[in-house]
Model the fold of this input.
Amino acid sequence: MTLDTDLDPGLDYRSIAFDPAARRATSLDSLVGSPSLDRLPSLDRDGTDSRRARIGRQLLRRPGFLVAILYVLLAVVSAFAPWLFTRTDPDATVPADKLLAPSLAHLFGTDELGRDLFARMVNGSALSVEATLIAIGIALAAGLVLGVVSGFAGRIADVALMRFVDVLLAIPALLLSLAIVTALGFGTVNVAIAVGVGLTPGFARITRAEVLRIKTLPYVEAARGGGASWLRVVRRHILPNSWGPVLVLAVLDFGTAILAVSSLSFLGFGAPPPQSEWGSLIAGGRDYLITSPWLTLLPGLAVALIVFALNHIAKTLEELQR
Amino acid sequence: MLRYIGGRVGQAVVVLWAAFTVSFVILYLLPSDPAAILLGQAAGPGAVISPVALARVRHEYGLDQPVLVQYLHQLGNALHFDFGTSISQGQPVASLLAEDVPPTLALAAFALLLTIVFGVLLAFLATFVPASWLRRVLERLPAAGVSLPTFFVGLLLIQLFSFTLHWFPAAGSNGFATLVLPAVTMSLPTSGVLAQVLIRSLGDTLGEAYITTARAKGLGRFVIHARHAFRNAALPALTILGLLFGATVTQAVVAETVFSRVGVGRLAQQAVTAQDIPVVQGIVVIAAALFVTINLVVDLVYPLLDPRVVSTPRVA
Done:
């Protein structure tokens, strides 16, 4: 009736879930008193070959999806092997070539010290992608543990953990991250931790919902009846079967994490100056916005496109799961 | 009804207390030595901190006392809006907040207004426009909106409307003209979210039987859309609105930094840069209070618009 539209399979929730604040609707739901939101699109769990082939064919019919995957892959590859894209030294200053407009020699132009912006951007991927991966890793690990414990232990542990998650959701994610960065100090890893903690509640909720759903299914009962320990049931039956919705959220949160990491880096809390990150590159070009707009706009556009691509991938995955 | 109100208010108070506790744990218990951070930032990088000064600061901020005493003391102070003294600016945190909260509230309120205008307009068009290809394009727009990094939008708008067209000032905090660009920046992602929720619920509502009835009576498409469908479809969006206001306030951190505006967001950016623990805590608590209050108001107004809410049993 009211907010149960929110995480409904039908809803284009890719972008709603995308905004951490809006995803908070999940927690608000219990306040409003509408039916539980702990439902997510669930996989048809018959992983037969024909089904895989069908999914494969569907993917081929979606050129946008393939382009998005390709673009994200390029970004990830550039993080681990920047030399594939450019051999220009990102820190080499050529004062004579400062603030050049984009050209074939300098795809993104050059900055105020004559450094090649494309090289800096490509080499900046390393820290930005690393931070994103750490953030998602933390959120995924902590969220899975919280969710599984909460879904299994039930009763008091469940209530306590879910209230804790609700409180984390009551503090706007960026502010939570800012507080953590204040306490831990600056740097790529600290920013990643701060963002990861901010993303954890979403994973905890979804994992819990999946665990609660799967826990009651006949095959879990059968495994228990067969004498399997709960630990084994969790490892062999519950986790493998709950990854679908968690995966969609992970892809979505990759986008969220990139936005959050680059925002914090833009604000100046990331790696110190000589190193480049996407956010700090964009911030660095601000002083030259009038004369050399490409210094901020090209890297900004590149980041926006990555987030959009991840968004699109998550939406397509979600549609395919239905 | 009284029980509903009492429950909501009680929940809000508990959440606020918990938010304070979380901020205390993060800011005062997580760092190995908050006093060193406080002193180190005041003294500048690389300065040698004398043990005497360290002990003095510990005493001044009560950091030499047991954790529980510190916590209760701070909680008591926070209830009186006393968050201590800023390290970097030497002023009470409360007076800094009193100075900077109003401009941010004005900005966020204007951004929220724009969010509603953009979101409603887009959702309406995306479900109303007769041409199906155009509808599909409009349905895709919100997804693009939420993908845009706030800082990128801000800088793009400055480039376009300040430097190229000279319509609005690029920076500053005086007058309405300076409010426009940051508010638009902040409203784009949130209006994307609002539009998605509205498009979804409008789609559902348009499939209801009473819409068919209205159509059968011979009412015009626009009247059905605007008066019959929209009113009911707007309800889910209302709950989102409180959350969106919270989101806009958060975005103020980036937007105010980009547009060099006075406000809590910029204060937050400066406080984190200076690792000014008391100020950061004050901002986190105030923001949580604002967030909780807005959601409380939405919760309390909601049953007036949709009485079914109160009678629905709560699902935990």
